Amino acid sequence: MIGLLLLAVATALLVGGAELFVENAAAASKRLGVTVLAVGLLLAGAEPEELLTGVLASGTGHPGLAAGDALGANVTMLTATLGLAALFRPVPVGHRVRVYAVLSSVAGGLAVLAVLGGHVGRLEGGLLVLAYIVLVAVIWRRERRPPSIGELAEIEEEGEKDRTPGLALLLTVVGLLVMTAGGEAAVEGATRVVRTLHQDDTAIGLTLLALATTAELFALVFAAARHDVGEVAVAGIVGSAAYNATATLGTAALVRPLATGAVLAPALAAAVLPLVLLALARDGAVRRLGGAVLVVVYTAYVVFVFVR
Questions:
Q1: Which of 66, 46, 64, 59 shows the shortest CA–CA distance to 176?
Q2: Which residue of 21, 50, 121, 202 is most buried, as measured by CB atoms within 10 A?
Q3: How far apart are CA 214 and CA 133, in angstroms?
């Protein structure tokens, strides 16, 4: 019971901290002159709460939680998050998002190669982080245009433009601290649930912890759909999938080498799912039937994790 309560508190902290972090980082990004799609890919997609949770889990001797969260979050986002959203409203997947979905699949393939041997060492971790840096450079080069619509426009309407750069920076740091607390609560809560359910770290990391740390993107997808900027949310998800497969998994391995014998199948699924998303996106959007398929896939995934 306490473990589930801690996971609920962690989710609230992660969502609140991430919202504070992303909103202020997005406001500052106006000066960088990148497109709204880049904001989704790099700011919504770069989830520091995932990285922090992975680092904390790895550093406290729970490699299964660290690897399971990084890869389980990708499966959760690409199935449950997008699937549930598509059941309510078509989720747009335009040409530019398709390009980044393919790159996200490539990043997932790198994670598969890293976990093949059942162990991700510091060398592999460093190479994964380097791969993410290269991906960021590619996105930056392709998306160097001033943003003017979508998520940034919403931020301006809410008065974000009135904040000074110093205040925005302070709030970004506060958001990071809140997410750190959320990550610690998530790891402790997940550890308690492991003891209660008699499941191993990896199973909980792949499911419950992944759900907790992807809560921000659940909120982002539904908020984006309400404001007719769904493609920004899809960009955030494919960007986050690439981030978790490289930066999150790699940084956790740099902190402490990870034993990853039980995550090969989820890693393969996370690498293939961006391509499945493209296959389901008929006429430029994932609709109810595609959404139902993704939800069924997630359900099968959860069953597989707990009965394997």
A1: 46
A2: 50
A3: 22
Residue 25 burial class via C-beta count within 10 angstroms: exposed 0-12, middle 13-18, buried 19 and up: buried
pTM as predicted: 0.79
* pLDDT, tens digit, 9 for 90 and up, residues 1-11: 677 788 788 77
Q: Choose from 81-90, 126-135, 198-207, 217-226 the range with maximum mean pLDDT.
A: 126-135
pLDDT value at 154 more than 50: no
227, HSE (Cβ side, Cα atoms, 13 Å): 18
User: What three-state secondary structure class fits 120?
Assistant: strand
Nearest to 217 by CA among 80, 27, 32, 69: 80
**Calpha distance 156→26 (Å, rounded):** 10
Inter-residue contact 183 to 14 (CB < 8 Å): yes
Q: Are residues 115 and 63 in contact, defined by beta-carbon separation less than 8 angstroms?
A: no
Instruction: Give me 301's structure tokens.
Output: 């995934």
Token pair for 106: 């490539």
Going by pLDDT thresholds of 50, 70 and 90, the confidence category of residue 48 is: confident
Tokens 């160097």 found at: 144
CATH of the domain at 290: 1.20.1420.30
**Identity (one letter) of the amino acid at 173?**
V
pLDDT tens-digit readout, 159-171? 445 556 567 667 7
Q: Which domain holds residue 62?
A: 2-307
Sign of the alpha-carbon torsion through 217, 223, 226, 228: negative
Q: Contact, 127 vs 254, CB < 8 A?
A: no
Angle at 50 between CA 266 and CA 289, to 5 degrees: 50
Q: Total structural domains in the chain? A: 1
